[in-house]
Design a protein that fits this description.
- It is built from four helices and two strands, in the order H-H-H-E-H-E.
- The chain is mainly alpha-helical and 128 residues long.
- A two-stranded antiparallel sheet has the order 1-2.
- It is elongated.
Length: 128
């Protein structure tokens, strides 16, 4: 079927059923929907021609430890606008993508978003 073909070609990932409604659902920030009306239908989310737009808009979440190591201007040695401090070494904090009052979360482009280097496989990130 068409869905399996798109998965086999690496254009889409394995979709999951919404357990409450037995249908596919994707959610996006309202600001994206208002600014990019094409994203409101599956036509605006499918096909190779949409890859650059989706890769640019939908960055990948960065866990707290990676943010402090690779992104933070002060390595989370103090509040930097995103994190209040480093995650504790002896806890699972480092793997979190948000922790209220301590880490606001951060999204960034990675090689998977790079359509120049990866024109056939670049993609934006959708999470459940």
């Amino acid at each position: 079927n068409d869905l399996r073909k798109l998965q086999d070609e690496g254009i889409i990932s394995q979709p999951r059923l919404d357990a409450n409604h037995d249908q596919y659902r994707w959610y996006m920030p309202k600001i994206y929907a208002e600014k990019h009306l094409s994203l409101l239908t599956h036509y605006g989310l499918s096909g190779n021609s949409t890859r650059p737009k989706l890769a640019e808009l939908f960055k990948r979440p960065t866990n707290w430890a990676t943010y402090c190591r690779d992104v933070s201007p002060n390595a989370c040695e103090g509040y930097d606008g995103v994190a209040v401090r480093k995650p504790h070494n002896d806890s699972a904090e480092g793997g979190k993508y948000f922790l209220d009052g301590l880490y606001d979360g951060y999204f960034r482009a990675t090689e998977k978003n790079n359509c120049t280097a990866n024109p056939g496989t670049c993609a934006g990130h959708i999470t459940n």
